[in-house]
Amino acid sequence: MTIKVAIVGAGISGLATAKQCLEEGFSVTVFEARDNIGGQWYYEEPDPATGEAQSSMYEGTISNTCRDTSGFSDFPMDPARYPDFYGHRASLQYLHEYADYFGLKQHILLDTKVVSCQQVEDNRWKIKYTTNHEEPRETVYDALLVCSGKSTKPHIPAFTGMETFQGRIFHSHIYRRPEGFSGKRVAIIGFGNSAADIASELCGQTEECHLVTRRGGWVLPRYIFGKSIHAWNSRFSQSVLPTSISKWSLTTLIQLVEGKLTPELQPEHDILGANPAIHSSLIENIKVGRITPHRAGVKEITATGLSLTNGETINNLDAIILCTGYDIDYPFISEDCYRSKHSTFMDSPDSVHLYRLTVPPHIRNLFIMGVFQLPGPIQPAVELQARWVTAILTGRIKLPPAERLSELIASEEEERGRQWIQSDRHTVSAHFLPYCDSLAKDLGAAPTFGRLFSRIFTSNPIRAMSILHAVYFGMCSSAQYRLFGDGSKPELAAATILRLAGGEKQLSEEEKIALTSAAAVSHVEI
User: Which segments of the protein form a coiled coil according to its record (predicted)?
Assistant: First the structure.
């Protein structure tokens, strides 16, 4: 009997999940509340009436992960058409091409908002939804896959005195461009990618630009010695080298390129203890005085500025921008389905009770996709997650009983406690390669040294050795997870891996042939 699945959201994780479900022969319906696919990468201006927006993209957004690690494994990004790092328009274009190539759009209901999801007597899911604000309708599905992301509900800290501030306070979620801030005095609260981007955009326009951070943090440039930052973080350095040596080598490399961080930014945690900010000019902007950093928390917001916990005050501010992240929130399902009430990592409203940050122990047909926070590209992870989930739904992967899953979740939380600093954003953090490898191992798709080495004794040993070298010493691309196991596509995977290793500036002929001969019908020029 055909499995009927409901997918909520048509962003990166929703599209990857839909594509995988269709490959499995499932009946697929994707619910997308907006009038286009793309999720956060579908840029929009805030509503002029309400000031609200669904997308967090600002006009100058540049991806934090490079093209060669961010493409899907069976639809690589063509370097002849996409730059190393790309903006929201290019990302949306790629997602449209992906959806067209795999025939996904006919399964997507646009302008359709999911109102509620409830389990019925046979444990299936009754989905209530409305299209274009019409009367709600209901349909029952065998499984529910939530792909609506974690960047929809801005986290607004309850700072003392917020209501007294005479200027403007707003979250980075609705920031769009630096115009309008000329000659202003602005303070940015928080330290992550959004804070780094916005501070660096504004500092050329403002009279004063302040960056307030409690912990500081590591800042990685997009390029080191002309190579993408991702080229320096290979499988060998992440999985073969001892962690202490890997941390030391990466820290030394960053300090060699950028020098030591200013005292206000220098974190107490090591370089792998928190997600770093990715920016190529933030450090320079601070060192030349365009941005003034402050190492402190916010004690109070006054009528004209900020009072900080280190005793400093910032006065005569025109605007305060909150780069304070997002709250995990899925309003259409019960919080009991995914929230953690007794996390062993930390007591946080953002703690989740999900095995592999995906499935609750007591519900076997509900999956929360893409909720994780990775210091790396999301595409390979959500793609593997989708393959893992569909293998569960078809019975190829058997999950242990609920009690055992809860024990495994507790172990995962304890591991996060050892690896990450305690903060709300790290309740769903995982290191990229170990997380992806854990899913790939269950699928029989892990590119282990033994498997790769054994290919040297086949008909093409030189090619096999080249692939082995590229997988362990090259970029950690999604293609490495298509060489073996459940859902493998070895011809395309090998071609992509070798092309990336050679630094070619367009898709190889081997890739084009593999894409053209794929079962899915392409509607775009390859």
Answer: none
Domain with 366 in it: what CATH number? 3.50.50.60
Same domain, 289 and 196: yes
Domain that holds residue 389: 4-153+327-443
In 3D space, the residue among 84, 65, 85, 68 whose CA is nearest the CA of residue 76 turns out to be: 68
Query: Are 234 and 315 found together in one domain?
Result: yes
Mean pLDDT of 289-307: 97
Q: Which pTM value belongs to this model?
A: 0.94
Residues 195 and 304 in one domain: yes
- How far does CA 113 lie from the centroid of its chain? 23
What is the tally of structural domains in the chain?
3
**525 pLDDT above the threshold of 70:** no
311 burial (CB, 10 Å; 0-12 / 13-18 / 19+) is exposed
Mean pLDDT score of the chain, rounded to an integer?
94
Distances (CA, A) of 342 to 103, 353, 390, 413, 497: 42, 9, 29, 11, 43
The secondary element (H helix, E strand) that includes residue 143 is strand 143-146
Q: Which two tokens stand for residue 157?
A: 């800290």
Q: pLDDT, tens digit, for every residue of 217-261? A: 999 999 999 999 999 999 999 999 999 999 999 999 999 988 888
Q: Are residues 184 and 299 in the same domain?
A: yes
Looking at the fold, whether 491 and 393 belong to one and the same domain comes out as no
